[in-house]
Amino acid sequence: MSYFNTTITETITYYTGLSPTAFFTITLLSILVYRTVTSMFVSPQDFNKPPVVSARFGSSRFNDVTEPPKKPVQVGEISEKELRLYNGSDENKPILISVKGNIYDVSQGKNFYGPGGSYAMFAGKECSRALALLSFKPQDINGNLEGLDESELAILEDWEYKFIDKYPKVGQLVPEPRTQQIEHSQEDNSNMKPE
Ligand code: HEM
Fold first, then answer.
1. CA 80 to ligand 1 center in whole angstroms
2. 95 lines ligand 1 (CB under 6 A)
3. Which domain holds residue 124?
């Protein structure tokens, strides 16, 4: 084995005139430079593919591909109860929020509204009142605008513009289905006015 090592070191020195340490250092540096430079170019067949982001600190450097944003799906007219299904707990569903009865797909703001996000309490909810009052109280997270003054309504309008600007509108909130309303009102024992 030592004969083998000696032969290699002698051969390196004979042919390159370098000490084995210098030879291996230069080889390693060359490989590093080669890999850095080639990673700056895209091969012709990969030219139109979406970019691959290498996650330096991730478990795999090569499997992390940026997820293309999902096309917003129109949900049409849905009730508050149905809206609650879109609160970010199901990864296969978009995250939706309703402002003044208009439903927006806020999935791109997952950091805000997804599980653990600062504004997760608004996900899957009609949150006009909370936005107008700048409140996080659960009892304010609804669409009841009663008793709001002009300045609060103006704040709500600002929020509405922000949502219109930033997120696609994907539906409209409708009252709960009539059968449920009847069930509720019977439970409440309230008087039903004839139409
Ligand atoms: C201490 C007070 C607050 C601070 C420091 C704060 C800070 C922030 C910051 C830095 C952002 C990110 C802005 C951006 O990148 O576009 C944000 C977003 C947001 N804030 Fe606040 N916030 C506060 C209070 C509130 C309150 C009271 C509400 C409503 C009840 C609220 C609702 C929101 C919403 C809905 C978003 C996300 C908007 C979007 O989807 O782009 N915030 N906030």
1. 23
2. no
3. 76-188
Q: Are residues 9 and 89 in the same domain?
A: no
Domain contains 65: no
Question: Do residues 159 and 93 share a domain?
Answer: yes
Task: Determine whether the shortest distance from the Cβ of 153 to ligand 1 is under 6 A.
Answer: no
What is the domain count for the chain?
Answer: 2
The number of angstroms, rounded, from the C-alpha of 101 to the middle of its chain's C-alpha atoms is 23
Which token pair is 115? Answer: 């599980």
Tell which residue, 163, 68, 57, has the closest CA to residue 119.
163
pLDDT tens digits for range 131-169:
999 999 999 999 999 999 999 999 999 999 999 999 999
Q: Is 136 in the pocket of ligand 1 (CB under 6 A)?
A: yes
pLDDT digits over 42-90, tens only? Answer: 555 555 555 554 444 444 455 555 667 778 999 999 999 999 999 999 9
